[in-house]
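Protocol step 4 of 6: structure prediction from sequence.
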Amino acid sequence: MLTALARTATRRPLTVMLLWGLFLLLGFGLGTGVFARLSDNVPEVPGTESESAARYLEEMDPAGSSITGVVAGTPVADAGMRAEVERAVADVREVAGVAAVPDPYATPGMIAEDGRALIVPVTLEGGLDDDAEERTLDAAAERIREIDAPDVHVSGGPLLGLQMGERAQQDVKNAELISLPVVLALLLVVFGGLRSALLPLVVAVSGIAGAFLALFLFSEVTDISVYAIQVTTMLGLGLAVDYALLMLVRFREERRTTEDVVEAVHRTVAAAGRTVLFSGLTVAVSLTGLLVFPSVFLRSMGLAVAAVVVIDMLAALTLLPALLVRFGGRIPPARTPGKGQEEGRFFARVARFAARRKVAVLAVAVPVLLVLALPVSGMNIAVGDARQLPADSEARQLQDTVDAHFPPGTGVSPVVVVARPGTDDATADRIRALEPGATTRELPGGGAVIEIRPPGEADGAEATALVERVREVRGDAPVEVTGTAARLVDFREMLRERAPWAALTVLAGIVVLLFAFTGSVLLPLRTVVTTLLSLAAALGVVVWVFQDGHLAGLLGAEGLGALSLTAPPLIVAIAFGLAMDYELFILARMREARLRSGDDREAVVTGLSRSGRVVTCAALLLAVVFAAFMTGGFSPILQIGLGLTLAVLIDATVVRMLLVPATMALLGRHAWWAPRPLRRAHDRFGLREEQPELPREKVPSGV
């Protein structure tokens, strides 16, 4: 199969490059339209009580979403300032689509006690379509910003989502400007030539175009999160470089034994292409676990990222071979080790050390990883607020201004209780009695909305406890709870219910693929266990930094008491897939060496010596990409970036360089064991396109 694919790509390389060129134009042309379609409605889970209540309100409540303006930095009671604010309020009331703007000077709680700040809440009409809502938001926000005061900020509601989308777009551009030159410099060091270094970047740019196009297509049928741009772009860029690096290293090795470039490309695809194929499949399968969750956010992320992985894989298996046919003749072969020298000498020594001291290596490495993983036991997740944004963002400045001038809890999203028709007065009274200051407003048709402002944060422990109390006291009455806290409660419950099924789906798929790749039953199980160790260690550090606040300032962040609810599932799904990536790089070389020599122990050393440099370089390049996306200052992306960076580095060093040879030595020949029926099934159905027997190595003339 792979040989046929290689021959197709090499027979008409110009056609292949032209098709990929059209794909790039489509991705960077049509695909970038996704930036205008991003949503910040991450906690929504279809079928939950909070979502049902929100839909009911959209249909029945004449009031729509709202935004908030804050004017600060000057005495707001000054006659001139008051006149200017009142003119702005009057103008905003006249904006088409605005339902209400209360007078901040006549509404209790809108003016700060120090007299140097006031709040201007703006409520939009219900039922506005997207275009009308955007026009209303732009007009209302722009008029408020025209108020002549030292500090004027507008955000909240749908405007916050638009601001996050703009920030996501800017962060992606900055990350690409940072990461691509650094990656190119590192590739120049690795290959020692500009042509070899540029080819992975061509594949990487294809991955970025694929990310944009995949997200745009998915946005036609589902919501796309503001986090999707950074996550898919960073992964698409990183994996493209990984796959291209693996293929190029193998191509240069093949050039040592043949001067025919086309034949070298065929051999490369037959050998390294098999690894790329299985790697892409395992990463994609790791992300299918996200499809088990009913959350639109998780499902859309799983589909989008899996699509990007497949695009990277196809680019490495088609575009790169076509490029190598055209330009590979100018790429020098890999250096042949000198007389008495061992290829990958450093990694061979590490492998022999770990194999000889297998018990000691396991006794040290495993406890260290478990200690790093300890904070996971106290992990908490939350929806978060504007504090997740960088300090220079307007939403964050609004939040900081409110916190500085108003009492705690001002502007906190309420717990929204929807009392549908048929709710008795006694039940409504019990709900209102849970917290002082609850307000009630009637809905058309006989229903009502009870808004209860919780103490503390909108998604804090007090708010979620209040949601639980409301659901306890309502009894059998037709009462539903929505709002930020209720959505968080439902999201957590969804994770608890579906996480075991997601894990089972991923593990089953990974075990099947690794069995198809290796023909072993024990190797997939060992791989899963060691991968989970590195993953737990990386996630533990993320909790320690961003939840507990240790060293968070070094990353331009702060401890928020909880992780963003987006971070843990994405870190787990993506990092697990990336770990399989490196495992396959190493196992492919070990399996190849074992088939040739029949020596299990030496196959471990040979496999690591020949793959260690590729794995280390790939991990370093991927870490650079992830780190570049941590420069934007958006806390959820910082969390995901740090988690993936640590997972990649820990996995490529501690796990793959030490635990893999140690456990392989401990298992010995049993590592490749499978029951006889499964062995026969693998021999019959497994993908086994092996590289033909190589002749004795020779150096091409002129090199």
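Step 5 (inspection) to follow. Residues 157-191 form the longest helix (35 residues).
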